[in-house]
Structures are given as structure tokens and as C-alpha cells.
Amino acid sequence: MNKKIPDKMISRREEFIGRVIDILLDAGFIVSEKCTITPRCFDIVAKRDALSLILKILLNIDSIKEDIVKEIKKLASKIFAHPLLIGEKAGNLYMKQDVVYCRWGIPALNIDTFRDCVINGIFPIVYAERGGYYIKIDGEKLSLARKERNISIGNFASMLGVSRRTVSKYEEGMKTTVDIAINLEKILKAELIKEINIFSDDIIEYNPEEDDKAIIKDKIPMLERKMIKHLINMGLDISLINYSPFNVLSKIKDEIILTGVTHLDNMALKKAKLTSSISFVIDRPAMFILDKEPPMNKIDDIIMLHKDDMKYMKDIEDLIELISNRKAS
Q1: What mean pLDDT comes out for the span 243-267?
Q2: Quick one: DSSP state of residue 63?
């Protein structure tokens, strides 16, 4: 049985989310409405120019579960966005400023570090791992600076108090402690420390092969199963998304459509409104396929379809034509 979250904690988290939204707006991002469905794999989506972010905001980053993270990473990879965790604590300790943490392969920052990144363009240089804090060195620059000063690997190792093999590893790009990194720059009088670009694709640990390829499963409701199967037969590339206002990503050629397949009720309309906000921010089309005749053809820019509309569509071109007609109506 799930434990009820205290109202005080909920209000603290809502206030924390509000602070993150204010930072994004100050930094010139377009920000979606807060995702209010539960459970959810993200809280807000934001975009500035070509940079799209999917943010999960937590009081404690250790509270996030692996299945939630898997959905964030899957969604981010499909819509070309960068997933981030913003938190206050890691375990029992407050998160340090200018340090990147990591949970299940997603970078995690405190709010001050996040502000520096998106407003000031200042990226952290330290990342936290088990055993302490570490820094990445530009191995190529290190090797060049050492050779320019005619310092042998052996002598350099003695200066640092490490082995020759360790120096070689540093020059190959191995991480080092904060103290060693500072000492390296001091001895060689060179800037060697690499900043951590939290918006780089290289920082996310994601393997697309981990995605569940079994689209049609018994646990999926019958309506969703039938509609998803029909979309696949029409030639669409389909990915299931859990813990989100929309439950399917439909790919037509190079276009991703945020898709909801669900029963028509108040929750479905709420999800459609949230999806509309996300669709606007990331500039992706969206549609909902419902088991009953929808009360309107569109909610904002979301196309609302009845399941029977799908019976007359045999291929992708039919769907594109229907969406175009609904948009124009």
C-alpha cells in the first residue's frame, strides 16, 4: 500500500517547482504547464531555441525510481530533449552547488547550479560519485603541457605523489580528485579541467535496446491494444510511454506525434490539455484517439479522434489527410 505524502511536503515541492519555473522563464525558456497526473515521469517541459528540457523536480533525488527514469530517458531520446533532475537533497545531505550528481544515468543538480547553467552559462566542473567528488581532465592538453615543459612522466608522477601509470591514465582522460586536478593545473600552469555540459548527449546513460519492444501486451487495455496495433499496421513507428499525459509516440516519417489512446472521461480531457501545452512548447503535433465521440474536434491544437475514425484509414497518408482536415476545421 502506498504511503500518503504529507500535505506540508507537497506544498514544499510545489513551491520548489515554482522556483524552477521562474528560473526557466528568466532564462528565456517557454515552459509547459505543470504535469499534474500521478504517477508522472516528468513535471515540466521547457524549450529555448533548439534546446529542449524534460525536468523532474524532487525534494530528494534518491526518491526517484528506476522505472520512472527509464520513461524520462525514453521520452527524451524520442523528442530530442535533455532530461534533468533538479533536487534539494541527495540522501540525508543537501546537494552541493557546482556539483553534478547522477541517478540512474540522468544528471541531477541543485537549483543554484541549474540557475548558473541556464541563466549565466556557467557549467559545473565537479561530479559526485561513490567515494567522493571528482573532476575530468583534458588528457590531451595535460600531455601537451607536460611535454612542452620537458617533464618526464616519472618526474611528473613524483611531483603529484602518484604512479607513472596513474599519470598515463590522466593523459588518457581518467577522472581525478579535486585536489589532484588543482595540483595538475598549478604545476603545469595550464587550464586542464573540463566543464560538465549538462546539455550534452554524452552525459546521458541511455541504451535504446533497453526499451521494451513488445508493444502489444495483455496488461494494456483492449482499446489501446487495438488502436496501437492499427497504427502499427498503417506503417507508423510506435513507442509506448508510461507515466505521461500521452501514452504513445507515433512516428510518421520524421515527425513525432504525441498521441493519447484512452477512454473519454474528465481525466482524458485533462490529459489532452496537458499534452496540448507540451505539444506547443516542443513544437510537435498531437492527437488523442478516444472510445467515444469527443465533445470537440480539437482541444487547442490537439486533434481529437473517435476510434471509428481509424477504421477508414488504411495507411499513413490517410491519417495525414485527416489530421490536416481537422486542423483546418
Answers
A1: 92
A2: G
Instruction: Give residue 310's pLDDT.
Output: 83
- Alpha-helical runs (H) found in the chain: 7-26, 66-79, 111-115, 139-148, 153-160, 164-171, 178-188, 222-233, 266-282, 316-328
Q: State how far the Cα of 188 lies from the Cα of 165, in Å rounded to an integer.
A: 19
Smallest Cα–Cα separation from 58: which of 124, 102, 14, 97?
A: 14
Q: What is the length of the chain?
A: 329
Domains and CATH numbers, the chain: 27-124 (3.40.1350), 134-188 (1.10.260.40), 212-328 (3.40.1350.70)
What was the pLDDT predicted at 255?
87
Task: Respond yes or no on whether the N-terminal peptide bond of residue 39 is cis (omega within 30° of 0).
Answer: yes
Whether the full predicted model's pTM is greater than 0.70, yes or no, is yes
Question: Could you give phi then psi for residue 252, rounded to 5 degrees?
Answer: -110, 110
